[in-house]
Specification:
Elements: H1 3-10, H2 15-26, H3 36-45, E1 52-57, E2 61-62, E3 65-66, E4 70-79, E5 85-88, E6 103-108, H4 109-113, E7 116-117, E8 139-140, H5 143-147, E9 153-163, E10 166-174, E11 181-187, H6 194-211, E12 219-225, H7 229-237, H8 239-243, E13 245-251, E14 260-263, H9 271-281, E15 287-290, H10 299-302, E16 311-315, H11 337-356, E17 359-362, H12 376-380, H13 386-399, E18 401-405, H14 406-413, H15 417-429, E19 433-435
Parallel strand pairs: 7-8, 11-12, 11-13, 13-16, 14-15
Antiparallel strand pairs: 1-10, 2-3, 4-5, 4-9, 6-9, 10-12, 14-16, 17-18, 17-19
Helix pairs in contact: 2-6, 2-11, 9-11, 13-15, 14-15
Bound molecules: zinc ion.
Zinc ion (ZN) binds near residues 190, 196 and 326.
Length: about 425
């Protein structure tokens, strides 16, 4: 079955709900950039795809960085003077600042306050905070909860360890007909946050599951990594593979109801940039394309000047531009199955463009070939858009000069790539086009 026949079938499938079920299952796990939560997440993903799990030892030098100590947490709480847990990690893992040092002591309210983080502008939400690369401890709580803390002293406990161990990441390599690779990368290092982290994980995993049953031109590499340190580690240990990355996408924030947003690669006019812009332009829905900037997700590392890979970031609402971002409100209610499924469809259409973007040459380049006698009007006639298809066929015949690729033609004719590709296939069947220059 061709990739786009399958996509038509997907429209009636349960894909959005399947992704949602995976997200709901991963949601309670306390992930961080290292540790058991990250590993448990990879183990669950291995039920869907044969993910290879890599373990990189603490202290490994990766360019200008060092693989950090491994962080694991079992329990944490703040108890009031009556011995009641007023903050309980078991109820919400966002309560503990990620990478907090272990602590167990009695503190005054004033001392405690120096370690508490709230969001006064959203007084019911718990913020998400981390203390990577600085050894400290802290708790996050809703502002209303904070205002209710009135005892003179509290017992704080963070039963965690920060020790020599490993940084784990998941990798799935799917070989295609060529060694040139398409990189699909997502961060998987956030605890109970849905859109930021889990939506990208779910979309990447289901994309990998889908592609592995298809014959592919490109080889694909899926990475499930801790943000920043994960991509730096992978790039440092895989410079040869990185050189084969022809196109790539960082998958993040793909489940919220906002419009699609594409952040271009540093190159700005790479084939991936043009393919995504084309697909979004013809998607029939609002979208935004923004230029590269050196902040955001792992595209920062893939697009560092020493690599300058053609990797963009395809998301819905960008990080920091929705109030729920990095708070307890980025939960199972923010992410919607239909938005996940819509994002999946956009990703698949982009990959279809990359897979099918070949050059063709017209076999009758001197004047138009006679289409009627070959039955080609009949082949595309009968449908309401047959006039459009006729014009598209003329564009294909005219621009297939061995120089243009099909995406060049789709852009210049302002016609969806899929239409151009189908007509090119039809013209090849009728010996009016041949592959290559
Ligand atoms: Zn984040």
């Amino acid at each position: 079955m061709k990739m786009h026949d399958v996509q038509a079938a997907l429209c009636t499938s349960d894909l959005g709900n399947e992704m949602m079920r995976l997200i709901a299952r991963l949601f309670p796990i306390c992930r961080s950039i290292t540790g058991k939560g990250f590993r448990d997440t990879l183990t669950i993903l291995q039920e869907l795809i044969p993910l290879q799990v890599h373990e990189v030892p603490t202290g490994t030098l990766v360019f200008d960085w060092t693989v950090p100590k491994e962080w694991n947490i079992r329990d944490a709480y703040i108890k009031n003077s009556s011995g009641e847990r007023v903050i309980d990690f078991q109820k919400c893992n966002l309560h503990v600042v990620g990478y907090s040092l272990p602590v167990r002591k009695r503190v005054s309210l004033d001392e405690l306050k120096a370690h508490l983080f709230t969001l006064p502008e959203y007084p019911d939400w718990i913020p998400y905070r981390t203390a990577y690369y600085k050894e400290d401890w802290g708790f996050c709580l809703s502002h209303n909860h904070f205002l209710a803390l009135t005892d003179e002293t509290y017992d704080v406990c963070i039963d965690a360890s920060l020790e020599t161990g490993h940084l784990s990441y998941g990798e799935y390599y799917l070989p295609g007909r060529t060694e040139n690779e398409i990189l699909i990368s997502c961060h998987a290092c956030h605890p109970s946050l849905c859109n930021d982290n889990l939506s990208g994980i779910a979309l990447s995993a289901f994309l990998a599951k889908f592609l592995r049953t298809h014959s592919l031109r490109y080889s694909y590499r899926f990475l499930f990594i801790p943000g920043t340190i994960g991509s730096i580690t992978w790039l440092a240990l895989n410079e040869k593979a990185a050189a084969r990355v022809t196109h790539g996408l960082v998958v993040a924030g793909v489940g919220d109801p906002g419009k699609m947003t594409y952040k271009k690669s540093r190159r700005g006019n790479a084939e991936i940039d043009r393919a995504v812009a084309h697909v979004l332009q013809h998607s029939g829905a609002p979208y935004e394309v923004i230029d590269f900037f050196p902040y955001g997700y792992d595209e920062r590392q893939y697009c560092s000047p020493g690599f300058d890979l053609a990797v963009g970031c395809l998301m819905r609402t960008p990080h920091g531009r929705y109030p729920e971002y990095h708070t307890s409100a980025d939960n199972l209610n923010l992410v919607r199955p239909e938005c996940l499924e819509n994002s999946f469809g956009i990703y698949l259409t982009v990959l279809r463009v990359l897979e099918g973007n070949f050059k063709f040459s017209a076999t009758h380049p001197k004047c138009e070939p006679q289409l009627g006698k070959r039955g080609l009007y009949a082949a595309i006639g009968g449908s309401t858009d047959s006039a459009k298809k006729q014009l598209a066929m003329l564009w294909v015949l005219n621009l297939c000069d061995g120089q243009n690729r099909l995406l060049d033609i789709a852009e210049r004719a302002n016609i969806h790539f899929d239409v151009i590709k189908d007509l090119a296939d039809l013209l090849v069947d009728h010996n009016l086009l041949k592959a290559g220059p």
